[in-house]
Design a protein that fits this description.
The protein has 13 helices and 10 strands. By secondary structure, the protein is of the alpha+beta class. The strands form 3 sheets. It has a 4-stranded antiparallel beta sheet. Strands 7-8-9-10 form a 4-stranded antiparallel beta sheet, with helices on one face.
Length: 474
């Protein structure tokens, strides 16, 4: 019987300058304390990746039609059918059906708050297929899973969990990459050891660490992407991101729906109705507006929004969020047959375009099923990496009879005292700056430091007490 021999080089002692020890301690404590939030985010995110298939299963009768006709019925006729089935509320927007998709007629209902009622109409027969309570176009099931992932159905308070997870995820990923590289930077087979676990290692912490780290290397780019894109629409970090876009004038441009000669301008992006349907709308205008938008080059799926108030135009915006995305928008005056304003996606500021594409990729929409598979793989990988991290903590526990403990001991403290002076001078302001941009990261880091200081003080007091007691006994 052969026993596997550890042929990897021993860890270098270059960590004595303080950087390695400090990073190891930060990675350890962040992993232990933040990992539960990452587990929840990974599980809920994994569930969200299947929402397109779930919608098809639960709401296929409303979302699709079995028989596709040659030509759709006039949009005005479909709106009339939806109005007959839903006499209350005001028309907020209309998304004409294409292919096997039904037409969506969205109604604003004051008692629903942010949510709306969407009536689904067969575009080829103008027959109503059903009505659902939707949120920004999402079905009840997708809305439920979206809320679960964002805030655990706890409202504003629940959003702290997802922002905390996204704030620390990039720290854990980059820290883990650096630690793994430091461990193997002198190895002759460094590249292979970085991306593949050592399968010859005996069972124990060394083998688990190999799987934990090598899998993290493969997931690194994707996890960093999820962290950054998740932060862009979080509560506090997302607010800072929005302020940065304001300062750089990098927001998506608003489509002006003000008609020539009108006194009161109204900004409207054409998304989900703006304030939708505040004035009486002639459904017959919808077909003319749609035809004018098609003539202006807006092909594919679109969303038509009636005027928000007198003196404003209709807006039509492309709503194809899969690659290559189509998000152009036009403002149309059906009375004159003129396109009064236009906003093309290619003319958006670069940051606005990148942010929009990033959000769609984060939601699994941009690349269709491939996007869903990639997100599911990231979620499963994050679950494995997190579980392996906790397993290492348990495997490192002392097992000797006189030193037995349920869990492993944390890395030694005091590494920051060995940092070079320039490291402290640069690092402290940098940490404060990052904490300012990512407030939950900053607050939780201060909490970690406070707890660590208290535990250190308690340990020193206990040690002093024990020495004093031992000295008195002697």
């Amino acid at each position: 019987m052969t026993v596997p021999v550890d042929t990897s080089p021993p860890p270098t002692r270059s960590a004595d300058n303080g950087w390695g020890g400090l990073l190891l301690r930060l990675h350890f404590y962040a992993g232990i304390l933040v990992a539960p939030f990452l587990l929840i985010a990974a599980l809920t995110g994994l569930a969200y990746t299947v929402t397109p298939q779930l919608d098809r299963t639960l709401y296929g009768d409303q979302l699709t039609v079995d028989r596709v006709g040659d030509r759709p019925r006039p949009t005005a006729e479909q709106i009339g059918a939806a109005r007959a089935a839903h006499p209350g509320g005001t028309v907020a927007s209309v998304a004409p059906g294409e292919g096997d998709a039904t037409t969506r007629v969205v109604f604003d209902v004051p008692t629903l708050g942010e949510k709306q009622h969407t009536v689904y109409v067969d575009p080829y027969t103008a027959q109503v297929k059903g009505t659902l309570t939707t949120w920004f176009g999402s079905t009840p099931a997708t809305t439920w899973l979206d809320d679960l992932h964002r805030n655990l159905h706890l409202g504003v308070v629940g959003r702290y969990y997802s922002e905390l997870a996204a704030s620390w995820l990039w720290v854990l990923v980059l820290g883990g990459l650096i630690l793994w590289w430091r461990r193997h930077r002198t190895s002759s087979s460094r590249a292979r050891r970085l991306v593949a676990p050592d399968l010859t290692a005996k069972r124990g912490v060394r083998r688990t660490r190999g799987w934990h780290a090598a899998t993290g290397v493969w997931l690194a780019v994707g996890l960093l992407f999820l962290s950054v894109t998740g932060l862009t629409w979080s509560r506090y970090a997302g607010g800072n991101f929005s302020s940065a876009l304001d300062a750089l004038d990098a927001h998506a441009p608003e489509l002006s729906t003000t008609l020539p000669g009108a006194v009161t301008p109204v900004a409207d992006t054409g998304h989900h109705g703006g304030g939708g349907g505040a004035t009486p709308v002639d459904p017959a205008d919808t077909d003319r507006v749609l035809a004018l938008a098609r003539d202006a080059g807006l092909d594919g799926p679109v969303e038509i929004t009636p005027p928000a108030e007198a003196g404003t135009a209709w807006s039509v915006v492309q709503v194809d969020n899969s690659w290559p995305v189509r998000k152009d928008a036009v403002a149309v005056d059906p009375a004159s047959g003129a396109v009064t304003a236009r906003s093309d996606f290619t003319s958006w500021p670069l940051l606005a375009r990148v942010s929009s594409l990033g959000i769609q990729a984060h939601m699994g929409v941009l690349l269709g099923p491939v996007n869903q598979i990639l997100l599911a793989a990231l979620a499963l990988g994050l679950l494995c990496v997190t579980v392996w991290g906790y397993r290492m903590w348990w495997q490192r526990r002392p097992t000797r009879h006189d030193r037995r403990a349920p869990l492993g001991t944390p890395p030694g403290r005091g590494a920051w005292q060995r940092l070079p002076a320039w490291g402290v001078a640069v690092g402290v302001p940098l940490v404060f700056a990052v904490g300012w941009v990512l407030p939950l990261l900053g607050v939780s880091l201060l909490a970690f430091l406070a707890v660590d200081l208290l535990l250190g003080a308690r340990r020193r007091r206990d040690t002093a007490t024990a020495e004093a007691t031992g000295g008195a006994a002697i």
